[in-house]
Amino acid sequence: MPLLEVDDLSVAFASYTGRFKLTKLQVLQGMTLDVNSGEIVAVIGSSGSGKSLLAHAILGILPGNASTGGKIRFDGEELTTRRQQALRGKDIALVPQSVGYLDPLMRVGAQVRSSVRAGDPLGEQRAAFARYRLAQDVERRYPHQLSGGMARRVLVSMATISGARLLIADEPTPGLDPAIVQETVRQLRELADNGAGILLISHDLESVLQVADRVAVFYAGTTVEVAPAADFSQDGARLRHPYSRALWRALPQNGFEPLHGGQPQPGELPAGCLFAPRCSLATAACGAERPVMRELRNGKARCIHAT
Ligand SMILES: Nc1ncnc2c1ncn2[C@@H]1O[C@H](COP(=O)(O)OP(=O)(O)OP(=O)(O)O)[C@@H](O)[C@H]1O
Ligand code: NI
């Protein structure tokens, strides 16, 4: 049984357009993925594809005007609002994309220590600070007294010593120097090898392939493919979805083949396959209806042409 199962998750936001007209903007639909204990699943997609919203939906921290559909299960049991509250910061931890998640009124050492569940909090915090090259006096500072890079390292320290069974890292390393990036990635791998499940969110396919076991590819708020990381190799022929292949072939070492056009915005989504307007394989049938997710060769894809 997977540690985390996201099954056909959808998210919509309600907003007022005009004075009294309440409209619903569908931003995620058909999000499907799972994470097993001991495994790193990378979530890849361009800006606005729904990566952070997926993380927030799992943690139960979506804004108040959001409504959700589909199912999220943790340990085989549905993640209700009450369970999300009980597990958040304990069994399920987040390295948030924004450093604004730190409590501005609390010294950072105390914040990191409060996430330690087993062992000596001070010892654990100091070991984590040493690992991420944060000087000891940093523990007495408030978040506004940290540089952006230091704040990110504090967030990574906090999540990695939480002892969480599921760790969701939302772009954990942008702007950090290569040694710290390597340390973070190495530690995520170690946490997974010790039994945690990791959801590693990134828009950098190349860097996540170094550590991920599987990759989920997002496009315009939908999961288009879930594939073993090893399928991203050679000319990408083992990949199932044309968008995954396009991402792979756009990398410099794979020919730098550009993909023209842009991802559609929520509220302006095409009727059929969301990728059809940019897809070289698209046929009339692709525009007719949204393709379902199909199990294919140890992975899955949402494309009627995939084999
Ligand atoms: N509170 C909100 N109200 C309305 N739309 C929102 C809200 N939050 C996010 N969205 C929209 O939902 C979509 C997905 O956003 P999300 O933040 O999940 O993208 P992302 O993949 O994490 O992007 P990035 O790589 O830039 O972090 C975007 O189109 C975004 O504009
Ligand atoms: Ni994001």
TrEMBL record:
The UniProt record lists the keyword S-adenosyl-L-methionine: no
InterPro entries reported in the protein's UniProt record: AAA+_ATPase, ABC_Ni/Peptide_Import, ABC_transporter-like_ATP-bd, ABC_transporter-like_CS, Oligopep_ABC_C, P-loop_NTPase
Transmembrane segments: none
Stored Gene3D superfamilies: P-loop containing nucleotide triphosphate hydrolases (3.40.50.300)
Taxonomic source organism: Paenibacillus hodogayensis
NCBIfam families linked to this entry: oligo_HPY
Protein name: Nickel import system ATP-binding protein NikD
Its membrane topology: Peripheral membrane protein
Subcellular location: Cell membrane
